[in-house]
Structures are given as structure tokens and as C-alpha cells.
Amino acid sequence: QAQLVESGGGSVQAGGSLRLSCATSRITFSTNVMGWYRQIPGKQRELVAQINVGGTAEYADSVKGRFTISRDNEKNTLYLQMNSLKPEDTAVYYCNARDVLRGGSGYWGQGTQVTVSS
User: What is the radius of gyration, based on Cα positions, of the chain?
Assistant: First the structure.
């Protein structure tokens, strides 16, 4: 079965940086659209950034200019570099993989907590 494991979360002061990683296994990483989502209690899970199989990235307006999504197809790993963090970035961040050849809803990781204090 597919496995996605997020890491790199933690607590940081406003203006600081974190880099999240999503290590994957048992998927064909190179044919998956990869995405980072986040969720805070009581709110819907929202897309933060995604990167397609060709390396084209898209971002939510709230993180444009601050976050960078990237993928390493050699390591089957997805990254999210988060700079200039704000308290409103506080959430559980989830990794998602969706195979463009297979379709369907894809797979999710277990999430990693990011807390930004002022």
C-alpha cells in the first residue's frame, strides 16, 4: 500500500522558516501530482501548493511569495520550504499524492504540526 510520511514541522516565531518533507513509498512518484494541504481545527482542509509531474507549481494566494514547493524524483520526496511564516500559517500540514495515470482521490500522509507564534 502507498505510504506518505511528513516531517519537519515544529514551532517557530513569526518571520521564521521551516522546511517540510514528504517521503513516499509504494507509489510511482514521477507520475503523481503532489500537493501540500493544511487544516486547522473547525475549518476545511485547504490546498497550500501543488506541483505536477512536469515540475510546474501552483500556490494558494495566501502563501505566494513565501512558500516554495519542490520534488526530488530520485528520492521520491516532496518538500515545502516555508519562509516569512505568519501565525495564520499554524495548522496541520498534509502531503497528498494523486497519480495522473490512475486517477482517483489519491493518498494522504498522517500530517505534521506547524505552529507559528507571535
Answer: 14
